[in-house]
Design brief:
The complex is a heterotrimer of chains A (263), B (267) and C (344). Chain A has 2 domains: 1-46, no CATH class; 48-262, Orthogonal Bundle (MetI-like fold). In chain A, 82% of the residues lie in helices and 0% in strands. Chain A contains 12 helices and no strands. In chain A, helix 1 (5-33) crosses helix 12 and helix 7 (130-155) packs parallel to helix 12. Chain A starts with a helix and ends with a helix. The longest helix of chain B is centred in the first third of the chain and has 34 residues, at 50-83. With 344 residues, chain C is α+β, with helices and mostly antiparallel strands. Chain C has 2 domains: 3-234, Rossmann fold; 239-338, Nucleic acid-binding proteins (OB fold (Dihydrolipoamide Acetyltransferase, E2P)), CATH 2.40.50. In chain C, the strands form 5 sheets. Chain C has a 6-stranded mixed beta sheet, sandwiched between helices. The chains are: A mainly alpha (263), B mainly alpha (267), C alpha+beta (344).
């Protein structure tokens, strides 16, 4: 089936790329469950390192989950009504606003973190609390939530549906609750999974915003890469994979579904 | 409450949040960049002082190399995967999109596993082959980050390409090679430029990967970080951040106007 | 309910005058159609009545003795059938129909009873629990109607209710809609660009053109006594006869016609069914094309007026293309209308 030379070349490039992406991932997974990495797999498989990670870093894992959850709630509270507002008021002002809140997609997290530190770094109570990290995560994930919902809302004839509900006696709030939210659901779901996935993996902003007492999972990872033996770092990476890969797959499924609806 | 008021009320939380945590901090960052000894001339210093200029040049070079390599690999693989149906295709696609969720630090670690002192390459090759902490390692890390993102953009564009165009070219006597040159590449070009812009901007601003690998390499994000934390040269860190932010923002603006995609930068 | 509109106009922010100051009165139980080409302001007028658009200052909308001008749509208690139906895709047929009742805060059993009643009236019992996406176009149209009338609105508004359907279905549903509207005994206004639809359904038709009501009357009145050339052209496709009017005769390219009265200063119109092909006719022309339409032929004739004159030929053997024919038009079938600048 891959008879022509071009196809063989294409296939080999594809396979090489796959190997480049996959091999270190597998190595990391194996290293996390190998008794001694220097001696190789022959030294035996063990969950010792994973336990050790749990003892050392359980706090950071729970902090990450908690921040991801809080981030989801915040982006929903801010993003859902905002997406509706932007969908109902299409115009240059909405475009500018959408462009502006999308800045965190383009501007590196490092720069945003510096900006936040410059303005709020001196507010000690806020600076030292987990809400400071949360603000960074919301800043970064909000555009994903807004756009995901906006794409679905733009695809349905929202204005006419709302007029239909209004002609039946529904107030603006009732229309939002009964018509907008249920019909935006595929976008909300895709946005929610994206927000959680990105929040759990966020490092660039978090590294700058965190304090020694508040380490998220990726911050802990960086920490373990710098100071722990390879097996522990790998085991921690493995824990991260176990968390993030199912989320990524769910996110891809939900986004594809929302995109089908939006077309 | 009228409908207009309700819609405005819906936008209020967003306005408050983005004013407090995006607009004001960015303004503050900009002002901070002018508060150093050099004043606003600090932006000239970036170009005048060899340390910063060299950093800028190196960052751009590594980012360009990443961009073109990622484009070449991902376009080849993307065209192959979207034009052929075979067993294991879904598997290959999953492998190639899996790293989308990996933060830059993790990718840095994976590169260490490949090219570090205890890395795979060093173990299976004779002699001492360690590249993880060099520019090569950084380049591979950025490449790891960019391949899945470029691939998705290319595949989305390839699926939108009308197969009838290729068939028409074939009926008119074009060789497979000519079809690629005359039909496929022009059709993919906007997406390729967009994907390239995204890869370039991402590489320019990548902090996580650089943080793990580039302890001895002066790339822009690392210099910003060290200026801020070690030298406490806040004005220079702010100025470099502003320059970096504007460059990546403009690049992604171009990308979006060409392809309409949203892919996260960072890493 | 009686509807009364006074001095109602609509100017959009960009200066477009969608509706010029308009007066309209609709009697209780009357079914009125707003008929006109696209862009004539008929949908704007309907949306102003619904409360979906605000009229320019000075306009007033009265439902019986209530001035509803300032009321938002959700408090006007109107039922509306949208062109796209605007059925809520997140709700079943039952939930769609019950939504207006829920907004009126009726009790569950009461809502159920009322929904069942409406379902039966619209012959939708079998589809009650279906999703909206599982319905055909005709079923959706009936659900939209059922949903609009379930809350017992004061006024029913229909915006091109049949235009989303294909031609065959449209004709069948047209008659069904006419029957249902009479059954509901409700004051109704519906917008259409299709004259057959307007005539089949409405008690009274208001023909609209360029932001104003050109003429309003029963379908028969409009057909037989159009007041303007626009109405004559739009209702029943009257053709303009170009020629020289001299007192009660008219000279055309293909011969001379006699008029019923002095036609000086008037334009003369005729309908295709009144253009008769017979050997004793005073007008001479040549057949340009013949189209077979089942019950009749449509014959286009050149040489009588500068363009083509169309005749409906009901006989068995139509003339051939290129054949010379004689044509007669009875004087009482000619429409004499005051001369105006623009012809349709």
């Amino acid at each position: 089936m891959f008879r022509s030379k071009t196809k063989l070349l294409q296939l080999s490039v594809t396979l090489t790329a796959c190997a480049f992406l996959l091999i270190p991932t597998i190595m990391s997974v194996l290293a996390g469950v190998t008794a001694n990495y220097f001696q190789g797999i022959s030294s035996g498989l063990t969950f010792k390192w994973v336990y050790q990670v749990w003892e050392l870093y359980a706090d950071s894992i729970f902090l990450s989950l908690w921040i991801a959850f809080a981030c989801l709630i915040s982006t929903l509270i801010i993003g859902l009504p905002a997406a509706y507002g932007l969908a109902r008021h299409p115009g240059w002002l909405s475009r500018v606003l959408e462009e502006f809140i999308s800045l965190p997609l383009a501007v590196p997290g490092l720069a945003l973190a510096l900006a936040l530190l410059q303005l709020y770094g001196s507010m000690k109570g806020f600076r030292a609390s987990w809400t400071f990290i949360l603000v960074g995560h919301v800043l970064y994930t909000l555009p994903f939530m807004v756009r995901s919902i906006l794409a679905v809302l733009a695809a349905i004839d929202l204005k006419t549906l709302e007029e239909g509900a209004a002609s039946l006696g529904a107030s603006p709030w009732q229309r939002f609750r009964d018509i907008v939210v249920p019909n935006a659901m595929p976008g909300i779901l895709a946005g929610a999974l994206t927000v959680v996935t990105l929040s759990i993996g966020e490092f660039n902003l978090t590294w700058m915003l965190h304090t020694p007492y508040l380490k998220t999972l990726p911050v802990g990872l960086a920490d373990s890469y710098a100071s722990m033996r390879l097996e522990v770092a790998s085991a921690y990476t493995l824990v991260f994979f176990v968390l993030i890969v199912p989320l990524l797959m769910a996110m891809q499924w939900a986004s594809a579904r929302a995109q089908r609806i939006a077309q | 409450m009228t409908n207009r008021h309700f819609v405005l009320a819906c936008l209020t939380p967003l306005l408050i949040f983005s004013l407090a945590f995006l607009a004001l901090p960015l303004v503050r960052l900009f002002l901070a960049s002018g508060e150093g000894e050099a004043g606003w001339a600090i932006y000239l210093d970036i170009l005048r002082k060899p340390r910063y200029l060299e950093t800028l040049v190196l960052t751009v070079l590594v980012s360009l190399a990443t961009t073109f390599t990622a484009l070449a690999i991902s376009t080849t693989a993307g065209m192959f995967l979207s034009r052929n149906q075979f067993r294991g295709r879904g598997m290959l696609l999953s492998i190639m999109t899996l790293p989308l969720a990996f933060p830059g630090v993790v990718i840095g670690f994976l590169i260490i596993l490949l090219g570090g002192r205890q890395g795979l390459i060093n173990q299976i090759t004779p002699g001492h082959v360690v590249f993880a902490y060099s520019v090569v390692g950084l380049f591979l890390g950025y490449l790891y980050f960019s391949i899945p993102r470029v691939l998705l953009t290319v595949m989305a564009a390839a699926e939108k390409l009308d197969p009838a165009l290729e068939e028409a070219a074939r009926t008119l006597g074009a060789s497979p090679y000519r079809v690629v040159i005359d039909v496929i590449m022009p059709g993919l070009m906007p997406s390729l430029i967009a994907a390239g812009a995204i890869a370039f901007a991402t590489a320019m601003g990548a902090f996580g990967t650089a943080f793990t690998l580039a302890t001895n390499i002066d790339v822009l994000p690392m210099v910003i970080y060290t200026e801020f934390t070690l030298s406490a040269n806040i004005a220079m860190a702010a100025a470099l951040s502003i320059v970096l932010g504007i460059v990546t923002w403009i690049l992604l603006l171009i990308a979006r106007s060409l392809s309409g995609t949203t892919v996260a930068a960072g890493g | 309910m009686t509807l009364r509109l006074t001095n109602t106009a609509k100017t959009y922010p960009d200066g477009t005058r969608a509706l010029l100051p308009t007066e309209l009165e609709v009697a209780s139980g009357e079914v009125v159609s707003l008929l006109g080409p696209s862009g004539c302001g008929k949908t704007t007028l309907l949306r102003i009545i619904a409360g979906l658009e605000t009229p320019d200052p000075g306009g007033e909308i009265w439902f019986d003795t209530d001035n509803v001008t300032a009321l938002p749509v959700e408090r006007r208690n109107v039922g509306m059938v949208f062109q796209s139906y605007a059925l809520f895709p997140n709700m079943s047929v039952r939930a769609n129909i019950g939504y207006g009742l829920k907004m009126q805060k009726l009790s569950r059993p009461e809502i159920d009873a009322r929904v069942s009643e409406v379902l039966e009236m619209c012959q939708l019992e079998d589809f009650a629990h279906r999703a909206i996406t599982a319905l055909s176009g005709g079923q959706r149209q009936r659900v939209a109607l059922a949903r609009a009338i379930a809350p017992r609105p004061r006024l029913l508004l229909l915006d091109e209710p049949l235009s989303a359907l294909d031609a065959a279905l449209r004709e069948a549903l047209r008659d069904e809609l006419a029957i249902l509207l009479r059954k509901f005994e409700i004051t109704a206004i519906f917008v259409t660009h299709d004259q057959d639809e307007a005539m089949a359904i409405a008690d009274r038709v208001a023909v609209m053109s360029q932001g104003r009501i050109a003429q309003s009357g029963t379908p028969e009145e409009l057909y037989r006594n159009p007041k303007t050339s626009f109405v004559a052209g739009f209702v029943g496709n009257a053709m303009h006869l170009e020629g020289q009017v001299d007192k009660s005769t008219m000279k055309l390219q293909g011969g001379t016609l006699s008029l019923e009265r002095d036609g000086t200063g008037h334009d003369v119109y005729v309908r295709a069914e009144d253009v008769l092909i017979n050997s004793s006719g005073p007008l001479r022309g040549q057949v340009e094309s013949v189209t077979f339409l089942g019950t009749h032929y449509r014959v286009a004739i050149k040489g009588i007026v500068p363009g083509l004159l169309t005749s409906i030929f009901p006989g068995q053997k139509a003339p051939k293309v290129g054949e010379a024919v004689h044509v007669s038009i009875k004087p009482n079938t000619l429409l004499l209308l005051p001369r105006s600048g623009a012809h349709p």
